[in-house]
Write a structure and sequence with these properties.
Layout lengths: L4 H7 L4 E4 L8 E11 L6 E7 L2 E6 L6 E6 L5 E6 L6 E7 L2 E6 L4 E6 L5 E6 L7 E3 L4 E4 L4 E5 L6 E6 L1 E2 L2 E2 L3 E7 L2 E6 L4 E5 L6 E6 L14 E7 L4 E6 L4 E11 L13 E4 L2
């Protein structure tokens, strides 16, 4: 479920998208692009944060996974640590001077010194690792289902979890996460929307529509994935896997609820590549 589209096609995988009938009640937020920045088109973006004037990025794919410090204005990778080829890098967040990076199906996370990228620790978890963020008290993790897991940052043990729903229906395939002003923002894999979630209830308060963000004809790009928030500057950045650009966006007023369609639709969205 995490491989680039071309690789899925080559493997003969079938990707199906099913939207449950019924009109979603959550508002859909539009966006405007404030500024566009260069982004490494070879970066299979899995985790993205903004801290102290730099982007920190976790990239995926076996043999290409890494942790990076990136200059926002130019897209220059100023520091990079490769991940062993056994591991497929996934979501990432920071905590107490460290970077924490999940891996996809190997049930292990790596903890690095944020300044030197030296490996400080590892820990394990059941199931897959997809997205990771924190609320200042707990780590918040997604695993490709409709669940958000809350972990103790000192022990990495699971404290609780919540099921994410929209109009009473599960929202599966939660991917890269960011915590913004008390809410969890989650990419939904293989869609062009971000779910804005109340972490206490798991309910989707609104959807952010990002269809058409990357100019038509862009070569080599994969799906939307990557959300970073600059709390000091109140700026939101988004990008995607293998995207040549990263965008600073501003939210626009809500409009109609989600249409009753497949990939772009709302309600209970499920994807399968099995």
């Amino acid at each position: 479920m995490r491989w680039p589209g071309a690789w899925l096609a080559a493997a003969g995988a079938v990707l199906s998208i099913v939207a449950v009938s019924g009109q979603g009640k959550e508002p859909v937020l539009a966006h405007t692009v404030v500024r566009s920045y260069p982004h490494d088109p070879q970066a299979y973006t899995q985790g993205l944060i903004y801290r102290d004037g730099f982007l920190y990025e976790s990239t995926g794919l076996n043999g290409r996974s890494s942790v990076r410090r990136v200059r926002l204005d130019t897209g220059e990778v100023v520091q990079q640590k490769p991940v062993d080829t056994r591991y497929f890098g996934e979501g990432m967040t920071d905590w107490a001077g460290s970077l924490i990076q999940l891996t996809w199906q190997t049930n292990v996370a790596f903890v690095y010194n944020r300044q030197t990228f030296a490996l400080e620790n590892t820990f394990t978890y059941p199931g897959e690792g997809w997205g990771l963020t924190h609320d200042g008290k707990r780590l918040i993790m997604s695993d490709g289902t409709a669940a958000l897991r809350f972990l103790a940052p000192a022990t990495y043990q699971e404290l609780s979890r919540v099921t994410v729903t929209a109009s009473g229906r599960r929202v599966d395939q939660l991917n890269e996460l960011e915590f913004i002003k008390g809410e969890v923002w989650a990419n939904v894999y293989q869609t062009d929307r971000i779910a804005i979630i109340n972490p206490a209830t798991g309910r989707v308060r609104a959807w952010l529509e990002l269809r058409g963000l990357l100019p038509a004809g862009s070569v080599g790009h994969d799906v939307l994935n990557g959300i970073a928030y600059d709390s000091a500057g109140d700026r939101i950045f988004v990008t995607g896997k293998l995207w040549p650009r990263l965008f600073e966006i501003r939210l626009s007023p809500a409009r109609a609820a989600l249409p009753r369609t497949g990939r772009q639709g709302g309600g209970d969205v499920r994807l399968s590549a099995r």
